TrEMBL record:
This is Angiotensin-converting enzyme. Disulfide bonds join C95-C103, C297-C315, C484-C502. One of its GO terms (molecular function) is peptidyl-dipeptidase activity. Residues 568-600 are annotated as: Disordered. Pfam families: Peptidase_M2.
Length: 624
């Protein structure tokens, strides 16, 4: 059943057609019937008093049914709303800024490339606004329906709402408090990075575009969601002209291909004595965007549950960023391979954050100057003095530290939506409230409740929980540090061997340690799995602080020297309930444009003249 469902899902994700959508839905209903039967069987046992801990754990994990608890008509609605959003997200297109007649720009690769490379304020703003309009903007009503049904399913599983249902995966009563505690530890460092980056952006774009003590405009950070900022490294690098770790030009020069990137990643895993991928992986995976087909380009790794068929689907581009993503996806595959002989119920990560952290822990080793030299992507004479170190750590921080507040609010927003503290009347403005409060960024154009900006991010559209990445970005440094100590590559008491220079390539001891943890799957509570690698049994930001220590010291001094304010003032949220009359310059409201909240109540169509009134009240709203 697991195999059949995966095949149907893969078919849809790699070839988005109405027929494949129908087949996927049909299969999901068959699977739901089966899961319901299994669940009835399991829950007919009084398993709570069982004394065999392993048997009890299996029963505990199997006793939660998930969305399949819904009656068939509602399950159909539920699936259809998610499929519709994923389809909107994956097929959205926008028009070019320079070439308005060219309206075939996809997120992957054209839009992503523009966000990463363009330094033209207005072009970035255009691309940002159009993407948000064409993706999230088209799915608000689907999301409303989805929230209602998803909560209904959670409640049928005896959870208060979907947020509580998600948290079961972390098997902790203090999970939310733990995450908040970690954020508080990271926050001072984030604020320093934010202040420094804002200063550099102000120098480039001017004080009028990037005011000194305000949130940063969300479209200037090299990434559509301002979630990782590595792509603007050239604008913010502390010592220009010194070495850069972006080896993209070298990869292109050497004629790298997606296939070569995957082969190299596999070789890194096997060099540590970890498992090779089977032939099915290479014949079944899709590692380049298919021409002539609509597909889900957001990367993913698939376990077809038959012990043989494991695949990756990724629209890989030849650049450093995707080289890291390749390792990330290969980390998922390694986990699959390691636990493939466990009972199906245990073929999962110790928790979702563990699954996300495997490839990233290795990628920290891959991206070291030492390793890049070894694989011929960096010149052997590249220095590793203090200035080069700061450049390196800052480039890494742009991806790793900038990410935390984003990863946090992705699920903070959904927790608030699922538990009802935020309703659809406030979906978008609440999103921007969190964006401003945690990330210190602001929308480049006024937003309203006609927009639905959370839906412009894949994991909201496709309903993938996100706090896993927050967990991952903390624990990957714990794993990295422990593997480095095991490999004799890091000694906390030896300054000539700092953590960020550790490369455990070819180290079999480190590989054995990691492999042993992965082979546990979800058979034990995650603190036990963590202990197998780190000796610790909790999430801890200290390894992370240790890694970045020289940069933290440097940033604090630099911001002081520049007289740069740390933090931001809120000059009022750039979001209002009603749409401002001039919010969309591209598409002026047609004669019969629906207004008002899209959920509930009837849609109101206004005659042309009434727009003047709407405009007046919107303006009034703005003034008030
Ligand atoms: C990130 C992660 C690593 C390196 C750089 C990064 N930059 C940003 C991130 C976080 C996040 C993002 O893009 O926002 N990364 C991803 O989404 C990578 C895709 C994935 O490998 O995590 C993928 C997401 C997914 C989940 C469910 C359905 C479809 C896509 N996750 C998996 O494929 C997966 C596989 C096995 C178990 C669990 C998840
Ligand atoms: Zn992943």
């Amino acid at each position: 059943m697991c195999y059949k469902s995966n095949i149907a899902e893969w078919q849809f994700a790699s070839d988005i057609t109405d027929e494949n959508e129908r087949l996927k839905l049909e299969q999901s209903l068959v699977a739901a019937r089966f899961e319901k039967e299994a669940w009835k069987n399991i829950t007919s046992f009084n398993w709570q008093p069982f004394t065999d801990p392993d048997l009890k754990r299996k029963f505990k994990l199997l006793s939660v049914l998930g969305p399949s608890a819904l009656p068939e008509d509602k399950l159909t609605q539920y699936r259809k709303s998610i499929d519709a959003m994923e389809k909107i997200y994956s097929t959205a297109k926008i028009c070019s800024f320079a070439n308005p007649g060219d309206c075939g720009m996809n997120l992957d690769p054209e839009i992503t490339e523009k966000m990463s490379k363009s330094r033209n304020f207005d072009e970035l703003k255009h691309v940002w606004q159009q993407w948000h309009e064409q993706s999230g903007g088209k799915m608000r009503h689907h999301y409303e329906k989805f929230v209602q049904l998803s909560n209904e399913a959670a409640q049928m599983n005896n959870f208060s709402d979907t947020g509580a249902y998600w948290l079961r995966n972390y098997e902790s009563d203090t999970f939310k408090e733990d995450i908040e505690g970690l954020w508080q530890t990271i926050k001072p460092f984030y604020l320093q990075l934010h202040a420094y980056v804002r200063a550099k952006l102000r120098a480039h774009y001017g004080e009028d575009k990037v005011p000194k003590d305000q949130p940063i405009p969300a479209h200037l950070l090299g990434n559509m969601w301002a979630q990782s900022w590595g792509n603007i490294d050239d604008l913010v690098t502390p010592y220009p002209g010194k070495s850069s770790i972006d080896v993209t030009p070298e990869m292109l020069k050497q004629g790298y291909t997606p296939k070569k990137m995957f082969e190299m990643s596999e070789e890194f895993f096997t060099s540590m004595g970890l498992l090779p991928t089977p032939p099915e992986f290479w014949s079944g995976s899709i590692i380049e965007k298919l021409v002539g087909k609509e597909m889900v380009c957001h990367a993913s790794a698939w376990d077809f549950c038959n012990g043989k068929d494991f695949r990756i689907k990724q629209c890989t581009k030849v650049n450093m960023e995707d080289f890291i993503v390749v390792h990330h996806e290969m980390g998922h595959i390694q986990y699959f391979l390691q636990y493939k002989n466990l009972p199906l119920v245990y073929r999962e990560g110790a928790n979702s954050g563990f699954h996300e952290a495997v490839g990233d822990s290795l990628a920290l080793s891959v991206q070291t100057t030492k390793h890049l030299k070894e694989i011929g992507l960096l010149d052997k004479s590249t220095p590793t003095d203090h200035e080069a170190t700061i450049n390196y750590l800052l480039a890494t921080a742009l991806d790793k530290i900038a990410f935390f507040p984003f990863a946090y609010i992705m699920d903070k927003w959904r927790w608030d939506v699922f538990d009802g503290s935020v309703t659809s009347a406030d979906y978008n403005c609440h999103w921007w409230k969190l964006r401003e409060e945690y990330q210190g960024i602001r929308s480049p154009v006024t937003r309203s409740e006609v927009d639905f900006d959370p839906g412009a991010k894949y994991h909201i559209a496709a309903n993938v929980e996100y706090i896993r990445y927050f967990v991952s970005f903390v624990i990957q440094f714990q794993f990295y540090k422990s593997l480095c100590v095991t490999a004799g590559q890091y000694d906390p008491h030896n300054p000539s061997q700092p953590l960020h220079e550790c490369d455990f390539y070819r180290n079999k001891e480190a590989g054995a340690k990691l492999g042993a943890m992965l082979a546990m799957g979800s058979s034990r509570p995650w603190p036990e799995a963590m202990r197998a690698v780190t000796g610790q049994d909790r999430m801890d930001a200290n390894a992370f602080r240790e890694y970045f220590k020289p940069l933290e010291v440097w940033l604090i001094a630099k911001n002081k020297e520049l007289g740069e304010p740390v933090g931001w003032n809120s000059g009022g949220l750039n979001c209002q309930k009603n749409p401002p009359p001039t919010s969309t310059t591209q598409h002026p409201p047609p004669v019969t444009q629906p207004v008002g909240p899209k959920s509930g109540g009837p849609t109101v169509f206004l005659p042309h003249g009434a727009w003047i009134l709407v405009a007046f009240y919107s303006l009034l709203n703005l003034v008030v």
